[in-house]
Every structure is written in structure tokens, then in C-alpha cells.
Amino acid sequence: MYWLVALISVAIVGLILTGLALELRPAGRPLQLPRWTAPAMGTQLVVFVGAQLGLLLLGINDAFAEETAGAVDAIEISTGMGLAIIGAGIPTGLSTIGAGIAVGPIGAASLAAITEKPENLGRTLIYLGLAEGIAIYGLVISILLLNRI
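Above: the chain sequence. Below: its structure as C-alpha cells.
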């Protein structure tokens, strides 16, 4: 399993170094990559995805926790309980993403509206509050689901 971790590490370091080389090139110079870079990037991506699948298939037994002989006070959490806890956290995550998507354009538009007419500040704050309320609703649903578990 260590060889899979090494493959993933090499692929990630290679992708990072390639990104840095592309980012640090001179600003006025157009991007002219050698012909071998396209297959190299594709090869690194295939190695990375293959190593991830190998870790998933071959290293799944190492990911499971082993029972300890002396643990008396250990709390037993079943797979269903773990999935229930993950399911209770999903509404918060998705609603936060939705609130971020909503607040971005509303915030930009409200700043533009305030610069033209400063008396619209209260109205734009209401719109921002409504968009941010989406995340609060997701948090409330997650709390309610956690109380049911």
C-alpha cells in the first residue's frame, strides 16, 4: 500500500511543480509548451486516478479500525449510525454552498446600488440577509436531524 501512496505523492508534486512553472513564466511571453508536456500531464493524471482507485480497492482493509482487546469503554457506532451522522451534516454543507452562491451576486449588486443611491442601504441589507438565511435554515435542519439520531 505504501507504493500507492508514493505514486499519488509523486503525481501531486509533479502537478504542483507544473502549475508553479506555468504561473511563474514571464507575463508577456505566450504559453509555448514542449510537445512532451501534454502526454506527461495526461500520464500524471492517469497515475493519480489509478493510484486512488488502487488505494480504494486494495487499501480498504487498512482503513477500517481494528478492535482493541482492552477497550471496555468504547462506544459502538454502527455503519448506519455513521451514515446518519453524515446525512445530518449534508444539509448544512449544501445550504452553505447555496448561500455563498446567492450572496456573491447580491453583494456585488448591492455595492453598486449603494454607490449610486446611498439611501438603498437598508433594502440591500435585507436582500443580503435573506440570502444568508439559507445557510441558517440548513443549520437548523441539521440540528433537528441530530436530535432525532
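The chain has a mean pLDDT of 80.
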